[in-house]
């Protein structure tokens, strides 16, 4: 079935409110999920809602807290997430730090014990909208095998970078695994096999069965390069946030455990060189205009495809699985989240 952006936001916001979130917190968490859907990443979208609701019902998420913030140094804001919703805790800290960046030049937020953030692009886009360069890092359960290994020892450990320009910011958002675990869960939920090379099963053998992959390990992207970047982020996040390392992390993919991963956000004031934003935009335009390997398929820069998908979804809505729709409605005490007329 197809949903409009407005209908999806109404659905997610109301469901979160019905399970204890304040209106503002529900709206922000809903926005993060719906934007992922609109950008073509349903693994980070509405399919996350049932688990969020279950975690809220079990007391594993406090939907009202923003966490506890403490200045560890002039440019370092330390946050105890206190089981809060990831987007709420993260954005509260970013918004507290951002006004100090013109004086500091650079600042860092280190968060531990908050819940899943969703797509990191949301945060670096928000930072770039403030006129700042943003870098976001996060950790997860052990889901990725080392290069040359077969056992899950690292998190998927995504990184995102946002750089403001005179036009749209450059936005890079990627996991250091070949795919996020959410993609494999999405394949399992929709009954589709995964491509060769994505994962190993519990016995360390290659598999295309997403259910076997969930019990095994995902490959790092780019073999040794993704592994190297992933393990560097693993240690960097733990060192800065004081959070657990991958083999001791839990709570982003289950409904039984408190979430104890870490998140780091770096905010940087860009150079005040005259005309810099325009020069950055002109460079990106030149990259897009450079010769393409395939006729009719122009060169893109990071963030372009997501913006194109989001624009199309704003016009035409986006598809969600009928069974997911039914599951979400079943979670609502009112049983009617979005009327038929609100669907796209």
Automatic annotation (TrEMBL):
Organism (species): Rhizobium hidalgonense
Tell me the Pfam families matching this sequence. Ldh_2
**Keyword Oxidoreductase (UniProt):** yes
The record's listing under PANTHER family reads: MALATE DEHYDROGENASE, OXIDOREDUCTASE-RELATED
Q: Which UniProt keywords apply?
A: Oxidoreductase
Entry's transmembrane regions: none
Q: What name is this protein filed under?
A: Ldh family oxidoreductase
Record's signal peptide: none
**Similarity section:** Belongs to the LDH2/MDH2 oxidoreductase family.
UniProt-recorded Gene Ontology molecular function terms:
oxidoreductase activity
Superkingdom of the source? Bacteria
